[in-house]
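Intended use. Records like the one below are meant for learning the mapping from a protein sequence to its folded structure. Do not use them to infer anything beyond what is encoded.
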Amino acid sequence: MKTFFIETWGCQMNRHDSERLAGLLVAEGYEQTENVDTADLILLNTCSVREKAVQKVKSRIGELAHANSRAAIGLCGCVAEQMHGSILKTTPSIGFVLGPGQINRLPEAVRLLEQDTRSVFSGFNSTEPDDFDSIVRSNRTRGMVTAIEGCNEHCTYCIVPYTRGPELSRPLDTILAEIQSLAEQGIPEVEILGQTVNSYRCPKTHSDLADLLTLAAGIDGIRRVRFLTSHPRYFNAKLIQAMADHPNVAPYLHLPLQSGSTAILKRMHRRYTREMYLQLVSDIRAAIPHINLSTDIIVGFPGETDQDFDDTMALLADVKFGQVFAFAFSPRPGTPAARYEDQVPETTKKERLQALFALTDRIALELNTALVNTTVDVLIDGSSRRSPEDWQGRTACNRVVNFPKRPGDSIGDSVKVTIVRAGPHSLYGHIL
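Structure written out for the chain above:
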């Protein structure tokens, strides 16, 4: 039997795409392997959000080709869409290029490769039906379900609209059938995905994300419902109420800010202000006081002054996010921000990023320390990366907890854990 190996870069959407790719190959008679050195087919599912993505991909393809010279290599994901067919000319070890909008054509690409024909499948015109039963789920406790693909926002720094195309929502009944299937498989947690997930609108019923959350929360066997990533300007009172009304909708929200400066937000084309964001946070916390918020920040966006950065730091100190994912601005090809003349020096970006992490780590440690001597519900994900003697799991509010294993517990179980110590990025406790 032929084997395949998939290496995944980037976001949750990419990870779920890899599960879909795996399912298509299994249906073709392939078997998944974790040994890249012996695989017959290697898929590199790529991300192009950060700088020099193409160079990093080419370098990795060279490493993979050297490690296993007999394997066929397929380039998938956002770099594949960004490069189209041009990368075939410069990288002869690539057998085919498959953009994220053409995942269902993987079997066709593989068959062409078996006939010594290299191929390119890009664009966003794939209309083939969903076959969620074929997806190879990589996590026994959390099932990812796509609600909406693509993005219409066109933030000036972002390449996603060019690599994943315009927004396209799936029918509500199809999404609910997939979630029902997860429940029947014994998967207790569902994660509803979309680049701008809260702009979801069912093409048949015009139901929105609040409606979807309400219906998903009512499916027997689903103990937690999460969703990401949300855009602040699509977050409304109905959605807040849907989160507050259902105990199994997780009290966790990833709400990208990007900058605490209204002037920079305008240059980013985010279409909200600092004040609007702060009011939204206030409304959410009024309805869900125990919610854990996380966010994304871009440091050193073109034109960012010391005062703009100070505005971001002040907002972070005020809101107190549980997790902050921050990056130095990197120009992406074809985006307006890449052409802005007032680029921030790299040294300044690094200094600001270090200062930001120092602040956010202090805040995260403060929030986590407040949980010491409390008892939390934890869903066991698997063995801890720190010690095989410990389990690792997550609370409903998406905090990582490590704790000693005990006989009889297994992946997917919910246990009550008393927190005994805290760090900025995880908690440690003992089963009650």
